[in-house]
Amino acid sequence: MELKGVELVGTVEVVGEVPRTSAPNAELEEPERLFGEKYAGGRFTPDGNHAWLRLVPDKILSWDFTKMAAARAKAAP
Length: 77
What we know:
There is one protein chain. About 25% of the residues lie in helices and about 30% in strands. The protein is α+β, with helices and mostly antiparallel strands and about 80 residues long. Strands 1-2 form a two-stranded antiparallel sheet. It is elongated, with a radius of gyration of 20 Å.
């Protein structure tokens, strides 16, 4: 009863060149800075094996089964 999740449905578009090289790209400056800070020891370095994608969501679904247990407890006599 602790299952939680999210599903994103939409269109995916490529951002920048594929694969990502070290060529400057103003559109990717912020995502690469944030990625580098969180996952790459402070600096993002393109390795020529990856690409950036943008998801434009049409629908977002989420679920949280922990709320079911709370609702049952509230409804119980």
